[in-house]
Amino acid sequence: MREASFVKQNKEKWIGFENALDNNVKINPDDLASYYIQLTNDLSYAQTYYPESKTLLYLNSLASQAHQKIYITKKESKNKIVSFWRDEFPLFFYQYQKTLLYTFLIFMSAVTIGAVSTLNDDSFIRLILGDGYVNMTLENIEKGEPMAVYKSGSNIGSFLGITINNIRVAIIAFACGAIFSVGTIYVLFSNGIMLGAFITFFYNHGILEKTSTVWLHGTIEISVIVIAGCAGLVMGNSFLFPKTYSRRVAFMKGAKDGLKIVVSTIPFFIIAGFIEGFITRYGEQMPWFIAYGIIFLSLFLIVYYYIIYPIALNKASKTKLIQVSSKSQIT
């Protein structure tokens, strides 16, 4: 985009925000923070494409004013944890939704490879899941309890063990992004191939419908592993594509942003662990409409929080900024 077009597209927004700051227009602290995020996004764009321009100097000055006003006027939230998941993170994550899409496509490619390989080679499943697990599952299938593995252990013990393990996998998926994103892609591929092989294994034995028991907890569990992979790519790509920043500064920013994404997944892993520890073991006895209700509700929760809600929140923030701009121009 030409600089003139960039300025024309955003001029009214910037002037309105500047007037609101200069004239001490009363702005809700949370709204002010939201406007500041949008402003820094414009600043980053200008740093990338117009590094020596007056536009960059102007946006730097405006961002500095906004930063000072935020830290002078913003009241401490009574519950920062709630504020983070309700407002701060969704608005922040909007900029990385495209990265999430790429992560999902990488994962689904691996799932497809795992499924096709298992369909064409009976020994592939043993290579991926191991002889011990395959033999145990075959024995359970013969007994008429293919999902018996999920009934073992105590409820609380399973819940804690599974939750901790899932968080560990997420941290690994994120941390491996430091290896130029290749490490994260490897983690995504290994988990995706494993999932594709697992599902096809049950399909080959004519009991694909039994996997609905796994999806009770797996819907959130698998989705959040993909999101953790997105965090890893955010960190790795920041080093590979630093834009106008030095690689060190870009990497530090990417690592911070990626860590924030990983932190956002913790409640979902706890939910998935709870479902696996307390609900999945009863999946085969559960009425189908309850089981599928849990699965679709879990999927909706993920899609809403990481896709729909950030888009809606970003749109609402822009609308509020336009309203503030209009009021400030009138005054």
UniProtKB/TrEMBL annotation:
Keywords: Membrane, Transmembrane, Transmembrane helix
Domain of life, source organism: Bacteria
Pfam families: SpoIIM (PF01944)
Transmembrane segments: 100-119, 156-180, 185-203, 215-240, 261-283, 289-308
Entry protein name: Putative membrane protein SpoIIM required for sporulation
